[in-house]
Specification:
The structure is a single chain. This protein is mostly beta strands. It folds into two domains: about 25-120, no CATH class; about 130-288, no CATH class. The protein has one helix spanning about 5-20; strands spanning about 25-30, 40-55, 60-70, 75-80, 85-95, 105-110, 115-130, 135-145, 150, 160-170, 170-175, 185-190, 195-200, 205-215, 215-225, 230, 240-245, 250, 255, 265-275, 275-285. Strand 4 and strand 5 form a beta hairpin. The protein is globular, with a radius of gyration of 23 Å. Mean pLDDT is about 85; it is low at about 1-25.
C-alpha cells in the first residue's frame, strides 16, 4: 500500500473515531413551570461532574440543562408538587466502572427569584459553583465529598435563611460574601479540607457561625464594623490558631468587640480545630 493511500485510510479512520466519540454526547434541557408552587425544594445526588447553580430569569421557577455522555451517564430530572410546595429532584445514574476524567456530565441549573428555595444536595468528586446572590434562599444543606466548590452571594438574600449547613470531606471550598445570605446559622463540619470563609456583606440581623475542622486549614474573613465574638480553641500541640485581635478584648472564652453585648446586628463565631489551622482576620466590608 502506498504511503499516500495509507495516510488517507488513517485520516478516514480518525474522522470516523471522532464522529463516533462525539455522537456519545447528548444534551437535555427542561423548564420547570412550578405548577402553582409557592416554595421550591431542590434535592439531588451529584456523584461526579461539573455542576453550576445560578440565579436568572427562566420561563418557570427553574431551568435545568445537562450535557452528558450517554454511554456512562443517565440524568434524572423529576418535578412534583404537594400542596403549595414544589419538589425538584436531580440525579445521575452512573456506570461507575467506566467513569474517567474525560467523561462528560455537566449541569447548569438556573433558579428564579420569584419563589423561596431550599437546596439539599450531596456531591462526590465534583466541581461545583453556586452563584446564589439575590435568590430568596430559605435553607442550604450541602454534603461535599472530594469536591471543589465555590459558593457566593454577590447580592443580598431578600428572605431570611434559617440555616446553611455544609459537611465537607477532602475538599476545597470557598464561601464569598456570606453576610449577604441573610442567614441565621452557618454550620460547617470539615475533614481534610481547605476552606475560605468570607463573612462580609449586608447585615440586618445577627449571624451564628459554627466551624469544626479536622486536619484541614480555614481562612476566615470578618467584616470590619460588625461587632463580633470569637470563641474557640487556643493553640495546641497539633493545631494552629491565629486571630487578628487588635480591635478586640480578651474574654474567658475568647475575644469580642467592645460593643458586642449591646449590638442588635452581630456575629458569633465558634470553632473547634483538631490537627488543622485557622486564621481569622478582618477586611473592609463589601455590601450589596
Amino acid at each position: 500500500m502506498s504511503t499516500k493511500r495509507l495516510l488517507g485510510v488513517s485520516l478516514l479512520a480518525g474522522l470516523m473515531l471522532t464522529a463516533s466519540v462525539s455522537a456519545q454526547s447528548e444534551r437535555e434541557e427542561r423548564t420547570i413551570d412550578g405548577e402553582g408552587a409557592e416554595r421550591l425544594i431542590i434535592s439531588g445526588e451529584l456523584a461526579a461532574g461539573v455542576f453550576d447553580f445560578q440565579v436568572g430569569e427562566p420561563d418557570g421557577v427553574a431551568q435545568v440543562e445537562v450535557e452528558y455522555d450517554r454511554r456512562i451517564v443517565r440524568p434524572y430530572i423529576e418535578y412534583r408538587t404537594r400542596g403549595t410546595t414544589g419538589y425538584l429532584d436531580l440525579e445521575a445514574d452512573f456506570r461507575r466502572s467506566r467513569w474517567d476524567n474525560d467523561s462528560e456530565n455537566e449541569w447548569l441549573v438556573t433558579l428564579s427569584r420569584s419563589i423561596p428555595c431550599e437546596l439539599d444536595l450531596e456531591a462526590g468528586a465534583t466541581e461545583s459553583r453556586f452563584e446564589l446572590g439575590g435568590l430568596p434562599l430559605a435553607r442550604l444543606d450541602l454534603d461535599l465529598g472530594a469536591s471543589e466548590a465555590v459558593i457566593s452571594f454577590d447580592e443580598p438574600n431578600p428572605t431570611r435563611c434559617s440555616e446553611i449547613s455544609i459537611d465537607v470531606g477532602a475538599a476545597s471550598i470557598e464561601l464569598w460574601q456570606l453576610g449577604n445570605a441573610n442567614v441565621e446559622e452557618v454550620m460547617i463540619d470539615a475533614g481534610a479540607s481547605s476552606i475560605l470563609l468570607d463573612l462580609t456583606g449586608e447585615y440586618t440581623e445577627p449571624m451564628y457561625v459554627d466551624l469544626e475542622i479536622g486536619m484541614g486549614a480555614a481562612e476566615i474573613l470578618l467584616p470590619e464594623g460588625i461587632p463580633v465574638r470569637i470563641e474557640g480553641d487556643d493553640d495546641g500541640w497539633f493545631s494552629s490558631v491565629d486571630i487578628d485581635d487588635r480591635d478586640l478584648r480578651r474574654t474567658r472564652s475568647g475575644y469580642e468587640s467592645e460593643d458586642y453585648a449591646d449590638a442588635e446586628v452581630r456575629i458569633l463565631l465558634r470553632f473547634e480545630v483538631g490537627m488543622g489551622s485557622i486564621d481569622v482576620r478582618f477586611r473592609a466590608n463589601k455590601q450589596g
